[in-house]
Amino acid sequence: MLEEYDIDKLNPRPNPYAKELKKQETIQVSSSVIDYFKKQSAKMEIPYQTLINLYLSDCVKEKRELKISWE
To answer: Which of 5, 10, 25, 44 is the most buried (most CB within 10 A)?
Structure first.
């Protein structure tokens, strides 16, 4: 084993996933929404937070626009 390594030569490629790193945020979400995703995640056998992230990522990918009507 070498006593000293040149870090730049150890991993010359950039991390392809670096732009997709997750960031922790705190948001307020209604209990019914969380319950819905927890039930869906139990059926799919994945964590509910992962399911929420997948859903929101799909919205971003498909450039979905919100349509809200206040009645």
So the answer is: 44
Q: What is the mean pLDDT of residues 19-40?
A: 93
**Which fold would CATH assign to domain 28-63?**
Arc Repressor Mutant (1.10.1220)
Residue closest to 34 by CA, chosen among 50, 46, 53, 49 = 49
Angle at which helices 48-61 and 31-44 pack, to 10 degrees?
A: 100
Residue with tokens 């319950």: 35
Q: Report if pTM > 0.70.
A: no
Report the C-alpha gap between 37 and 49 in whole angstroms. Answer: 8
- Please, which residues have CB within 8 angstroms of residue 19's CB and are 6 or more apart in sequence? none
